[in-house]
Predict the structure of DUF2848 domain-containing protein.
Amino acid sequence: MSGTTIDVLVHANGGATRQPVTLDRLVIAGWTGRDPVARDKHIAELEELGIPRPATTPIYYEVAASRLTTSDRIEVSGGDSSGEVEFVLVKSGGRLLVGVGSDHTDRKVETYNITVSKQMCDKPVAPELWLVDDVAAHWDRLMLRAYATIGGERVLYQEGALSGMLAPADLIARRYGEAGMPEGTAMFGGTFAALGGIRSADRFDFELVDPVLDRVIRHGYAVQQLVIAG
């Protein structure tokens, strides 16, 4: 199975260590909102782009783990892709960790095959992770936020508390049952509707904020569009 190894700073039990994390599975969870109204808003938002409703909610898409990257730049085909900020669960060394990433997706391809659209683009992730046990007691207060730079203007693109998303235990159980998430797996946890609608950007910045322990994980990347010759 093709995988990838990323170098990350892992915060756990009051300390931090830099270490390689090897991942051989990547799962993109979709339509994971706890609030059916908010979830349906995101579904309607995608339907406006011609993207069909999911067969189930939540739904889990398998993507090559080699698509994960901590780079500050990605290349995409044409101008029909966009980012989505999501929390990212990682099972490594027997521990469940959480970070933040962008489920960058080709929206044109998404109108006819969602799984392929997910596979089309790299998935940028911040090179930093927290131990889930350290944030479990205040999980719902964690915040996701994203900014898009469009035509030189940086705008707030997405924002919301994780109280709006399925909690890790529920998200994992619906996919893996009592067995739990396998070692070497990364799972994107879903996203919020875009403020002002889904659109492409020249740059995408995102963050996971912990207001209780007063810390934040940030990352961002430039989007380089490749010419489609035909």
Notes: Residues 4-226 form a domain with the Fumarylacetoacetate hydrolase; domain 2 fold (CATH 3.90.850.10). The CA atoms of residues 28 and 61 lie 5 Å apart. The longest helix spans residues 36-47.
